[in-house]
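Lay summary. Proteins are chains of building blocks that fold into shapes, and those shapes determine what they do. In this project we predict the shape from the chain. Here is one chain we studied, written as its sequence of building blocks.
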Amino acid sequence: MFGRREPVPFAFVAEADRFRSNVTPPPRERSSVGQMAGRWLLGLTIVAGLVGSLVIGTPALTPGKTADQPQQSQASEKR
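And here is the predicted shape, written in a compact code that computers can read:
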């Protein structure tokens, strides 16, 4: 690591690992009603988007009746 010029006593290094501050952090501010409503709205929007994509995408994943019959264009019928 870094080369130190002055020696550091081992007791100081060991004590630094378990040092705890006696200063408590300030209490968290409570969220306002608007912030809470915004979080709920964002969550509901994400869930609704996932559900909507599942509902729209599910029919595309199921095999349909038209997959069994070969498709012919109208141009190939008018010879």
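What the prediction tells us: Residues 33-61 form the longest helix (29 residues).
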